[in-house]
Amino acid sequence: MDVLTDVCANLRLRAGMHFSAELAAPFSVGLPQEARRIRFHLLLEGELHLSLSGHWTRVIAPGDMVLVTEGAAHGLMSGPGAGTPLPVSALLAANSPADGVIRLGSPAAARLLSGYLEFDPAIRHPLLSDLPAMLTLRHDDVAFVAGLRLMREEARCGAGAEFVLHRTAEILLIRCLRQLALDEGAGFLAALDDPALARCLAAIHRAPGQDWTVAALAREAKLSRSILSERFTAKVGMPPVGYLTLWRMILARRMLSDSALTVEEVAERSGYASLPAFSRRFSQMFGKGPGPWRRDRGA
Questions:
Q1: What is the 8-class DSSP label of residue 98?
Q2: What is the homologous superfamily of the domain 196-298 according to CATH?
Q3: pTM (2 decimals)?
Q4: What is the pLDDT, as a whole number, of residue 208?
Q5: What dotted CATH number matches 3-183?
Q6: Which of 66, 160, 230, 282 is 20 to 30 A off residue 270, Cα-Cα?
Q7: Are β-strands 74-77 and 110-118 bridged in parallel, bridged antiparallel, or unpaired?
Q8: What residues of the chain score a pLDDT lower than 50?
Q9: CA atoms within 13 A on the CB side of 142
């Protein structure tokens, strides 16, 4: 499994839908801060302006999808001077959806589909720390054209449409991340595009329980220890052994949640010969030891 796929799988990438809407002009809808979700809006028809935290506006073209990262507050409007934003909660409470679609006024100036992509909120992986505040997936970009076309077709709410929409939104995000890896000069995605750092990351993800040292990872990367540490830290935001520890804890959390392995077995598979050392590290990252964390999750 490649590193990006491994990260998305273990951070529990999941998509969901907020609403489908047909809005008459003028309209202005405000979406509040939400904990670390990536929210998306697919413009099916018409014109849409998106304002991020009230500071600047981007015009969304029909067929395009915009992603707002880190759950940032933002506004959807028909254009400049559209008025005071109506909280999205008030819009949903006052307008019962007909056929799954919220209709506000007529004729519709914009038809859109809104949803979210989320990861395990308790995990701070560097992949999610380096994303731009807003990303636009354009309908004429070859990387996204097929997925966006499928999203537009499934927005008609046929049988099984919600499942298809969820999976397609997840695929589009991964394709977007892959594209960013080619464009970014810094951050985790840039590390994936650096052949030496990519070899180091692949080694960690291939065998996270191995007794890795900086020297061993440097051999995998085909770099000296000092150059690996400097370049890795500059792009990923932590040294190689720090990332190894983070990834081990992420996998341990998943094993404790999804398997019947004992805490001792999880510790061993996570590369820890000492259960107290494993428990201390897990507690430092997640606020409680592995045993209490598992019991609380099952309560």
A1: B
A2: Homeodomain-like (1.10.10.60)
A3: 0.85
A4: 95
A5: 2.60.120.10
A6: 230
A7: unpaired
A8: 299
A9: 0
